[in-house]
Amino acid sequence: MASAPENEVKGREETIKEGIMEKDGVLVVSGEDYIYRVCSALASPTRIRILIELLRREADIGEIADMIGQSKANASTQVRRLEEIGLVRSEYKPGVRGVRKVAKTTVREIRIVLAPPEQEEQQH
Fold first, then answer.
1. pTM exceeds cut of 0.90
2. What would you give as a GO molecular function for this chain, any one (predicted)?
3. How many angstroms separate the CA atoms of 58 and 104, rounded?
């Protein structure tokens, strides 16, 4: 049996919280509490705008603040909310003066699962 080429990218799966998992750009959410948290975070037009911009390119907090026309403090708060549910990841990179927090997202799709697979099977 032939093995996969070494340079082939394998699917990445990560459980962010018990009911939130990301795999290959898809965030899968299940469980009432986690569905509520994700939907609540997405209920903000500002956070939706940040996500759409971060799909295009990574950006630091200052750039995000400019994108949304708000202060750096508010932009940082919005990004933190998206980080909490796994939609955004941030890292610190060297800047002109000190370090800068750079945010990015790999999530292109969000799936909400209302019933876990075991419950679906029991219903049939």
1. no
2. DNA-binding transcription factor activity
3. 5
Q: Evaluate whether residue 10 is within a structural domain.
A: no
Residue 11 lies in a domain: no
* Phi, psi torsion values for 110, nearest 5 degrees: -125, 125
- Distant-in-sequence contacts of 87-94, Cβ < 8 A, 24+ apart: 87/27, 87/38, 87/41, 87/51, 88/50, 88/51, 88/54, 93/60
Residue 35 lies in a domain: yes
Q: Which residues of the chain have pLDDT under 70?
A: 1-13, 116-124
How many domains, in total, are found in the chain?
A: 1
Q: What's the token pair of residue 66?
A: 């400019």
* Tokens matching residue 61: 């907090």
Q: Which residue range forms the structural domain that includes residue 106?
A: 30-113
Q: Which residues neighbour 110 within 8 Å (Cβ) at sequence distance 6 or greater? A: 26, 27, 29, 38, 42, 87
Q: What is the CA radius of gyration of the chain?
A: 17
Q: Are the beta carbons of 100 and 111 closer than 8 angstroms?
A: no
